[in-house]
Amino acid sequence: MVDVLNRSRKFKSLRTLKLQRSNITELPDSICKLRHLRYLDVSHTNIKALPESITKLYHLETLRFTDCFWLQKLPKKMRNLVSLRHLHFDDKNLVPADVSFLTRLQTLPIFVVGPDHKIEELRCLNELRGELEIWCLERVRDREDAEKAKLGEKRMNKLVFKWSDEGNSSVNIEDVLDALQPHSDIRSLTIEGYWGEKFPSWMSMLQLNNLMVLRLKDCSNCRQLPIHGCFSRLEILEMSEMPNVKCIGNEFYSSSASEEVLFPALKELRLLGMDGLEEWMVPGGEGDQVFPCLEKLSIEWCGKLRSIPICGLSSLVEFEIAGCDELRYLSGDFHGFTSLQLLSIEGCPKLTSIPSVQHCTALVKLDIDGCPELISIPGDFQELKYSLKILSMYNLKLGALPSGLQCCTSLEELYIWDCRELIHISDLQELSSLRRLEIRGCDKISSIDWHGLRQLPSLVYLEVSGCRSLSNFPDDDCLGGLTQLKELAIGGFSEELEAFPVKIAYLNERILEI
């Protein structure tokens, strides 16, 4: 960087210097002459070091150096920046030394506990606000050590507690987390890598009334989940990689029998990699309401879960299930699911049935993949004729296409792959919006209504491949009516199939793959 700071006196009064996304690799030592500088941003640059002279900017209030991948260390005397209020960075290796001297700090995104950074350094940062990630909590010695941080006195919006490994086995990790109780105004809390067997009482005793986001990740020894149902403002709940949790039962929802609305504000619930989870129950008492506002539900890689309760989720918009090896059925029905737009079920090899989808009158995308024991998709698809746009059926045991599918005039994409019990495909001619049709690897299909397909006015892509029993491909101009067709991929049919139709010339200048 050309040192222009000495060339003009007008820089002497400079208060804001924004160098983000520039091609600088260094700052000149003379930057210390900008003694009135309040704001400095070198984010998204290739800068390798900040000069020691920067610590003489005694009026500097904001320093930003995010996405500086070449930056390896900070000046030793960062403690001299006594006016610093906002420090923005995203590399846990760039936590300033002696951060406790920066008593005016309001923004500190990351703090790493270690030999050079004791957790008690946070004690003096009484003005700290916003978001803070605390890493390597396994290095906190005991409850007394954790209490010195005085987190409960800091009005943080978001806290992330991270343990990197199991550290010192002599440390009572449950006492440490208990002593890290945040201020009651906290909005978002993440606990990751915690190896205690239980969560602290402050997570279950209505002491987090304003909590909106809770994430529990890799809490490998926890056997019981904290009570969350009474958190009146909780909107996002994510629980992942907690292999010792075997059941989600009534104690998860509420400790009080008087609670009638549980999780009243929850919009998103995710269960990921809960390897030991076998049972999930919901309260069934008269008048109970559970998840009345839930919009997104994801259950992924819960290999032992046998059933999923789905009753009463009238606000649900997206429902995703994946990698649940033992899942056999969904408990309940889709009655009242009038807001559901996405239903995706993947990788559930023992799933034998699902409820009727005909009441999901807002359904836009239905994706069922890798459920080789699923013999049908029940329900009258005529009820979905104005909403359904994408239907994907992969590796299923279907003997027939869903009832009423021919009425779905809004359908734009239809995928039928590896449905090896399917014998016949017909009655698609009314799918006036269909743009893409793929039929692959359906070994038992012996006939397709080609003349019906020629009546699809919007079809752009057609693929029929790997259907080893298919032998009826007429030599008539069966595809001549497909005026919008741009790509055709066919092949892998029965050896008894007669010659490919000569009148394929109707597809002039379009792509043909055989």
Uncertain runs with pLDDT below 50, 5 residues or more?
none
Choose one word for the global shape: globular
CATH superfamily of the domain at 420-514: Ribonuclease Inhibitor
Please report the number of helical segments: 4
Gyration radius (Cα, Å) is 31 Å
Q: What is the total tally of β strands?
A: 29
Give the oligomeric state.
single chain
In the CATH classification, which architecture of the domain at 420-514 applies? Alpha-Beta Horseshoe
Beta percentage is 15-25%
CATH fold name of the domain at 420-514: Leucine-rich repeat, LRR (right-handed beta-alpha superhelix)
Mean pLDDT: 90
Helix content: under 10%
Secondary-structure class: mainly beta
CATH class of the domain at 420-514: Alpha Beta
Distance between the termini: 59 Å
Main sheet attributes: strand count, strand direction, barrel closure? 17 strands, parallel
Short description:
Residues 119-242 form the R13L1/DRL21-like LRR repeat region domain. With 514 residues, this protein is mainly β.
Layout of SSEs?
Elements: E1 16-18, E2 39-41, E3 62-64, E4 86-88, E5 110-112, E6 130-135, H1 143-147, E7 156-162, H2 173-179, E8 188-192, E9 213-217, E10 236-240, E11 247-248, H3 250-253, E12 261-262, E13 268-272, E14 279-280, E15 289-290, E16 296-300, E17 307-309, E18 318-322, E19 329-331, E20 342-346, E21 365-371, E22 390-396, E23 413-417, E24 424-425, E25 436-440, E26 447-448, H4 450-453, E27 461-465, E28 487-491, E29 511-513
Parallel strand pairs: 1-2, 2-3, 3-4, 5-6, 6-7, 7-8, 8-9, 9-10, 10-13, 11-14, 12-15, 13-16, 16-18, 17-19, 18-20, 20-21, 21-22, 22-23, 23-25, 24-26, 25-27, 27-28, 28-29
Protein name: Putative disease resistance protein RGA4
Domain R13L1/DRL21-like LRR repeat region: 119-242
